[in-house]
Amino acid sequence: MQAQEPILNVVAHEGGGPGLAHSETSSPALALADRVIGTGVEACAAFLVAAEIVVLFVGVVSRYVFHSPIVWSDELASLLFLWLAMLGSVVAYRNAGHMRMTALVSKSGPRAQTYFDMLAVVASMAFLLLTIAPALEFAQEEQMITTPALEISGAWRASALPVGIGLMLATGFIKCEEKQGAAFSCCLKPTVSSGGFL
Question: Is residue 45 part of a domain?
Fold first, then answer.
């Protein structure tokens, strides 16, 4: 019997839409890196959710029950929310859980679904590569600004943008490297070619 080549299967992720299963030839190092990023980001996001609930609850109770508002609670809540939003984006990107239109993709064949899934990964990575430089520049500029209530550098808040974008890029590169070369190249080449006109 002839050995069958590994086939990319289309699977449904929890958050939404079809995604790509890991290739049978995926590197253990890449799988470990993906697992470390996923576990670490999800743990940090869970901690931020708990901290956000505590901060908001304490702020509401102090303001409306004891009539003695904590001046820094709103500022801290907004800082935590920005970090939570960016880390949540990383989790959604890793699990293919972002909102997207799948009406036509779900009716196409497995090969077309594989192509469109990889196209979505590469297109989003291209956008992230365009935005990470301005995000880093914004975080550097915020170092000179001190928040009025907490009296800390604004970089603590602004750093959420480059950190989240960087983690999404790392996750995207891992996804691309884990897939079979043919599936990636068939999507990457047209995308890069079309990007040359921009």
Answer: yes
* Domains in the chain, number: 1
- CB contact set of 71 (below 8 Å; sequence gap of 6+): 149
Whether 51 maps to a domain, the answer reads yes
Tell me the C-alpha distance between 180 and 138, whole Å.
37
The CA-atom distances, in angstroms, between 61 and each of 54, 66, 73, 197 are 11, 7, 11, 56
Give the pLDDT confidence of 22-54 residue by residue, as tens digits. Answer: 444 468 888 899 999 999 999 999 999 999 999
Task: Compute how many other C-beta atoms are within 10 angstroms of the C-beta atom of residue 45.
Answer: 19
Residue in the block written with tokens 């170092």: 143
d(CA 53, CA 48): 8
Is 4 contained in some domain? no
How far is residue 196's CA from residue 198's CA, in Å, rounded to a whole number?
Answer: 5
Q: What angle do CA 195, 95, 123 make, to 5 degrees?
A: 5
